[in-house]
Sequence to fold (598 residues):
Amino acid sequence: MGYQTTLAKMNALFADLSKDYVIYAPKRFVGDGTFVNIDTIRYGEITDLAEIEFAEKSDYSFKEVLLPISETLFYFTENEMKEADAPKKGAIVFLRSCDLYGLKRLDTIYLENGAVDTYYKRLRDHTKFILMGCENSFENCFCVSMGTQKSNDYDAYIKVEGHTVLVDSHWDVLDTALTGEAQTIVIADSVTANETVVTIPETVPQTLFESPFWEDYGNRCIACGRCNFVCPTCTCFTMQDIFYTDNGKAGERRRVWASCHVDGYTDMAGGHAFRNDKGQRMRFKVLHKINDYKRRFGSHMCIGCGRCDDVCPEYISFANCINELNTLTKEEI
Amino acid sequence: MTVTNPYTPFLSKITEVIKHTEIEYTFRMAYQGDVLPGQFFEVSLPKFGEAPISVSGIGDGTVDLTIRKVGKVTNEIFENYVGDSLFLRGPYGNGFDIDNYKGKEILLVAGGTGLSPVKGIVDYFSAHPEDCQGFTLLVGFKSPKDVLFKKDFEKWEKNINVIMTVDTPEDGYCGKCGLVTQYIPEIPINHSDHAVGIVVGPPMMMKCTLTELFNVGFKEENIWISQERKMCCGIGKCGHCKIDDTYICLDGPVFNYTKGKFLKD
Fold:
């Protein structure tokens, strides 16, 4: 159902919802970027729609709401373990169309690939998603190439125009709260073209695994893992046990984000490791995103947000990599 | 819907500890439930973490986990196991299906601790030699003092053909020396094109062994391998063990070679 209402009304509505939900949205953190006078846009809790950065792409994705950077699984004392409590409140997340497709990738890994992940599911079941439209394509986005520029799979779409707010609701709670407001047809903004266009090879032959093409990336990549950490579809983690310094018999087991680009990711007991070369890591990531995930689950993992290109300190372009890989694949076949 | 937490370990009592070498012990753990050779458990020690360990033996109400003291978790297990328990999660992975090998000539080639995940197969066929047309265990260790499962060898040799070799002999050692590959041509296999090969060990040992098996006529579809990777969660989430579109913890670690040959890191 579509509605036209006021910013004041929506803020009051979200204030009411905040009794049961923490509301997360991309916010501008002034001067918090990597360099001097550079802002960063990342997810944080909001209490007013005016805090949301609608006009620019967020540097970081929404995934940390459902997959916290560091998440306690258990608390333990000697031979007893206690599962960490779930958050008391649910979550409402503002995100873009491509990110909604990223959500599907997280669901696939955490709910469908093997056993259902308890910690993810208990957050996911109590999270609502509000779409932020894209009036224009942002730098490095290639959502149109990935088919992720438009999604109707949201709980609500919200567009703020001055003091007016347009809402398309798929959520009965919002419908009830907006009863009496002017009804209108609301169609979510979405782009139809991006400046960056990628062509994904149908299948990448295994002969290209050994291609010198990857060596260029081995020489440039510094294994910082930023591309993984900003990606809404990177799902990997590692487990850590810690114990409290003031009580050595008590501690907790956590999972923390891990990254296939970072040193130590494949280390095994005894010192053996795989993919020590950074070019091999690039090959592993790229093929995971646009080749083998699709073979297993039926869709490409990459959703074309371009954040990896935005953030790379070595100016490595994932989009260019795919296009060059497509050229090499054609030559190989 | 209530979801059972797949990360929850259970407490398992250590019923026996069998010392093989200074740094390799078998921990016999209380366990009731189905388990196959080649599957693995996440062995968990609060405050130190988890480590994936292959099942090296299956008993009545027990599983054997052969652990090498080689990292943070295993060091602590060796230091503090005495008379105690360990936390386990699992079993995970597909394991070896004994039915795939029944009625066949079988050559099992293992290197070092690679014998652990396949020991259940050797245990079965040495106890039921009538279930196969012939069974040869070819296993290599670095040196005589690295040999695992010495008492089991005495039992196995009664019913199956066992060839044990070491890379580096020591004074007083009078057994076989050299790499496992050099013994493959000598093994009496009547119909190598129908025989089953099972190969587990360090990557280079597996590569050379497979080459030799093909040289003597083994077919790819009759060979099984087990892959070793870092497996942090064991349930297809953490991504560490993923190769191509395969999760070793879910789809493996046991693979027929026709599939396993495409797994390139």
Observations:
- Chain A has a mean pLDDT of 95.
- The longest strand of chain A covers residues 247-257.
- Chain A touches chain B through 51 residues (CB under 8 Å).
